[in-house]
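Q: Structure for this?
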Amino acid sequence: MLLIHCPYCEEERPELEFAGAGEAHIERPKNMADISDEDFEKFFFIRENQKGLVYERWRHIHGCGRFFNAVRHSVSDKFIKTYKAGEKKPKLTKAEIEAVLPPAKNTPANEPVYTDGAKQKG
Amino acid sequence: MAQSKRVEHVSTSTENTGANRIAGKGRLSPAKTVSFTFDGKTLTALEGDTLASALLAHGIHLVGRSFKYHRPRGILAAGPEEPNALIDISRDSARRQPNVRATVQTVYDGMIAKSQNRFPSLSFDVGVANDYLGRFIPAGFYYKTFMWPRKAWDKLYEPVIRSAAGLGIAPKEADPDHYASRFAHCDVLVVGSGAAGLTAASIAAKSGKNVIFVDENASFGGSLLSDSTSRIDGQSGQDWAKNKVTELAAMDNVTLLSRTTAFGYQSHNMVNLVEQITDHLAQPGSNLPRERMWQVRAKKVILATGAIERHLVFADNDRPGIMLASAAQTYLNQYGVTPGRSIGVYTACDSAWHAAFDLKKAGVSIVALIDCRETVNQDLINQANELGIKTMVNHAVTSTSGRLRINSMTVQPVNGENKTVIAVDCLLMSGGWTPSVHLFSQSRGRVKFDAERGIFLPDVYMEECTSVGSCNGTYDLSDAIAEAATATETALGDIGAKARKAKLPKVEDSPSMHGFLIGAAKGAGPDDFVKAFIDFQNDVTAKDIRLAVREGFQSIEHVKRYTTTGMATDQGKMSNMHGLAIAAETLDKPIPEVGLTTFRAPYTPVTFGAFVGHAKGDLFDVTRTTPMHEWAVDQGAVFEDVGNWKRAWYFPQAGEDMHAAVARECKQTREAAGIFDASTLGKIEVVGPDAVKFMNLMYTNPWDKLAVGRCRYGIMCREDGFIYDDGVVGRLSEERFHVTTTTGGAPRVLNMMEDYLQTEFPEWKVWLTSTSEQWAVIGVQGPKAREIIEPLVEGIDLSSEGLPHMSVREGKICGVPTRLFRMSFTGETGFEINVHGDYGRSVWEAVWKRGAPLGMVPYGTEAMHVMRAEKGYIIVGQDTDGTVTPHDAAVDWAIGKKKTDFVGIRGLKRKDLVAEGRRQLVGLKTRQPDYVIEEGAQIVEDPNHPVPVPMIGFVTSSYWSESLGHSIAMGVIDNGHKRMGETVYVPMKDEVIAAEICSPVFYDPEGGRVNA
């Protein structure tokens, strides 16, 4: 069970208090009614869903009720940080990323070798 | 028979705890005895015995039949890794648990133990025929053989296979015990209490940090408890451990938990423990939970989980009487029991030599000590010679004999053929040790392979934990203690504790654990046609692994699933390394390239009770009831579950079935009046200067022009344009809306509203409050509704002009504040009286008192469903399924055509959503007026079409309409709106029903009644 830092309550609380709310930083177009099919597809259907660093939304539903964002490594499940809704994607340092990477060395051959999602993104 | 035997025993000794007890050995007191039964026979044990030690004391090795071949099986181990000795343990008929490992079950007075998977008896089992057919039951046998004919699988193959294979029988009675659960936080959690664990716990405790210290066994001390030679600071291992534990027990910051298994390692350093509380007690207090589940969040976890000895893979290595050398040592040194009187030892590891020495010193005959290694440490050989033990180095045991127990072993030189048959009544074996990296691996750490020693070791850590002692490959006692001390000091430093450098104790004479063999031993190679077991619990042999590889399985995960090796309840604690080595050898690849299978929680089996904890019976789930619930109970209502709500379904009168009750409730409501508890409706108060803007966003409808005091039926879509929820919304002031949602939809609607408000439009001044439980809602519907409530209402003009259909007023009813809605879900003149929940019951009763003499009836959700269907009102989730747009449901009039934005506006413009011929909601009238179609039935165009018949839609709602005198239905049909009057067909099991497509509004289509 994850331990999640709510940026509003400023507390680490067990995952039981939270509800996941999908990928973060997908902004609803201001001219919603007029966007193209391609833009609607991007907005509504396409998700990164990648193995590696993910930016995701959580709601502290059994707490303060606020939505907020988080950066987590989807393999190690470690959070780099959580931040309030509306704040920009945080710049991550190399040290911060390395601290959440799952081990890759001496991996038995049939185990997937994990890569750094941030690097994949370029 | 059993009776007379017992009498005989009593006459020779009052405390016959078994012929194989060795006086002066073990830590149990000979003065304290308990009695139990095994397969109906009464036996006496010493208090503190495990079932395994008690049985062995009486010379009983045979305790079960194997899973697939029904081969006789004995006790193999002395700890939780035991694969064979699975026993059914009970106190009484309800308190019975199958598949309990005899090696961890403490015997208590009155315990009933029964062997499993044998028919008709343990010593004679007809299933053993499988053993002789073994060459025809190779790996993957079931997959290959029972494929055809398909139909025989359900009726013949599966039932026969299931009854022949398998372990214990699950209890049928409800479990009368209760179980506890607890969350805990600590600074340091130490798992395992051998020398390394004790050292770690002791250092962590002295730093003042909070420590939880757990061990799965009854006593702390780990392998020290079975070690007869080591001296730590001049004390025996047992005394040293005892002193450490006494010290820890006296400290306030330490929680000591024995009989507690750390079985799961979850993300972010959460470790699951299960504590056994009463399973070893003869008469547990009724206030005690049987087990307690702990969820511990630790800042640091120190894993001192030890190592597990492996068996050796040779022909017929599974006869009762063959066991792990370390197990024999444990039985002797802890329980004072020898597993045999003339014992052979077959090993690839030094540790078995020490076991042999201990037994020999205790007066047990060691017939021969066979070591398959080329050379062995001369000190061991000298010691064996001194004790008079015959040693055969560079030799191997290549077969055994004995039907229900081993009676001889055949020994050959490793590089020769000369066979020597040696009579034994017990054979101890050791293939070396496997570090217990289970929890480490569950924590998603990565292991590395140490080829020199044939072990996988913790390498890269993912969680805040550290491994010490033999689970980290540090077998030497002195090194393990030093490693534990250093690692604990580092861990404490990481969490900001001051740890004084501990003084390390002086360790002498500790036994060696050097040497190993993984894979098949001599005589079980690719060319030998023998049963050399790798996995005892699932009956997997060396040749099964080779066959799987020959058949093309290359990944160890696939080999595992195909052969089922390591998939039994013991999760291959003894077998995994052997299976891996044989697969690697057959593939001609190094072991790390073949890989290690993933370890998963639970480490050992955990009862369902422990997981369930308190969440059973009334506490299983929340039950939500309305303020008027008890009134409905008193009226004899039948209830249905709607989400967590209990809703009155119908109110049967004497002699009425559901059909009759619903027909009467509908008829009476339409003719006079009905009263309905609508309190479960979701309610959200939307307030603020931007409330109307917000409503415009969330609902398809336009809200700007909705006058204060008026209501509107609102439709809410998702961004993709499909209907998400609906409900009537009343405007109480310019800035205040009273929103209702479906009963089940309230939380998700509020969540969606909050999401848009908080993350897309945070600058809007709107406040959302859930008021579902604050308002009790009393629906009064029917031509006499107004007459009934009028005298109770103050300050509201109830006339058609004063309070027209779809309007809301605030005023008083029965002297208490109300929001009175004029609305209808029945098609009759209707009111929904909202009052504070606390007044719900008294207002309800006042209305009832007025209405009953005027012919008003209470009606339930079924009549409500019928009456709304008669009017063609949809129920979101019943007539819609997440692929239905407002157009499809023919409620597109609720879309604000001039609006520039609302949730779903863009989705609704998608090509597929505006295309002609979509599946649309229509009414259905059966040609046979009294036939009620089944809801969910498929609709076809041409019933004579050859199979497969194309499906053009399905029935979503279907009822008998008492008011109309015929059945009514709604369904979704391709291009339905343009097919009015067409006939479609509903194929049922025995007949095909013809139905005409019609408008879904069956009753009062002009709406004269609702506006009256």
